[in-house]
């Protein structure tokens, strides 16, 4: 096991250094052409590797560095992730163009600046547009019918926000948008299907994000579940306590009966399967529930929709995928999950996967949007059962 882990880590580092070296070399050629004698290779490569490895530097030295320095490095490293992806996508085409120009005997002094500025322009446009998509959340509406009675309720309006990722990158400014837009919907219930924080809980506490989050309002309450990032951070007891202090209940393999009319089932994240306590099967969590009443399940990662349908769940709310966050990553998430974003009817189950409100890594979205879900559930009794 240790040997396999060592090989995996070595492979990851080889890929990271290889990709960054590839991007860095192209950058040095372009800047050398543009700056001439002002270009200093030694200084360039020092600055380049500090920037390229800044996220890793934050991770390995967060306990030593001052909070402000650590946050700055994380922000730089996050944006660099986006530049890395754009570089990997653009530079192979640049190299093909270089080959064509070389075969045509066109001097490098002619095509290097042209290709370089084209790449810079494309990256800047992608970063600006991606930042707008990430920082300008939209309301996505779903209207469904569950053929069950929920007491005297004819419908229920729920605001759903997954993958908020509060931390050094997504802070109070973006959180304020969440509070204002959710409260503007006047929902009956607010549900947060995981990844409320981004790994480390310290920024959440340091910047007093709980004070902002406390302003969320819903008469039937606010419920959350754990996502994989809460497990990565490893501060679950502290996170649960922080949520409790601001009136949000974190359900960890728990079922809540709301006003004796419907059930909210909150599952631990799939990451819990690797912990000593594990997580319970959904069928086990539903033991003792009245299946004639509506059942809403929150499960951060959208796996096993068929099992949720078979267990008797009516609605399953998930996130996790971010819809790839930056295209063309959605082509990967589409293959990994039966439903990586949007709505799917699976038997009697209404499955909804959100692209999330926040971001992981760069606050950039291309091919996806920061979103809040407004879910309206209409309850309609089954006439056969009444008869």
Looking at this protein, list some descriptive labels.
2 domains; six-stranded mixed β-sheet; 387 residues; elongated; 47% helix; Purple Acid Phosphatase, chain A, domain 2; 16% strand
Molecular structure report:
It contains 14 helices and twelve strands. The chain is α/β, with parallel strands linked by helices and 387 residues long. The protein folds into two domains: 2-133, no CATH class; 139-386, Metallo-dependent phosphatases (Purple Acid Phosphatase, chain A, domain 2, 4-Layer Sandwich), CATH 3.60.21. The protein has a six-stranded mixed β-sheet with strand order 1-12-2-3-4-5. 38% of the residues are buried.
Helix and strand arrangement:
Elements: H1 2-35, H2 41-52, H3 54-61, H4 67-103, H5 108-135, E1 138-146, E2 155-160, H6 172-185, E3 189-192, H7 202-206, H8 209-213, E4 222-224, H9 228-233, H10 236-245, E5 248-250, E6 254-258, E7 262-266, H11 282-285, E8 295-298, H12 305-311, E9 315-318, H13 330-336, E10 342-346, E11 349-353, E12 371-379, H14 383-386
Parallel strand pairs: 1-12, 2-3, 3-4, 4-5, 7-8, 8-9, 9-11
Antiparallel strand pairs: 2-12, 6-7, 10-11
| Sheet of most strands | 6 strands, mixed
Average predicted confidence as pLDDT? 93
Order of helices and strands: HHHHHEEHEHHEHHEEEHEHEHEEEH
Which structural class do the helices and strands define? Answer: alpha/beta
How large is the count of helical segments? Answer: 14
Catalogue the unreliable spans. Answer: 383-387
Sequence of strands across the biggest β-sheet: 1-12-2-3-4-5
Percent range for β-strand residues: 15-25%
- Molecular shape: elongated
| Tally of strands | 12
Architecture per CATH nomenclature, i.e. the level-2 architecture of the largest domain: 4-Layer Sandwich
How many structural domains can be distinguished in the coordinates?
2
How far apart, in Å, are the first and last alpha carbons? Answer: 60 Å
Q: Kindly state the percentage of residues in helix.
A: 40-55%
| Rounded radius of gyration (Å) | 24 Å
Keywords: Membrane, Transmembrane, Transmembrane helix
Organism: Paenibacillus germinis
Transmembrane segments: 37-60, 72-94, 114-132
Pfam family, one: Metallophos
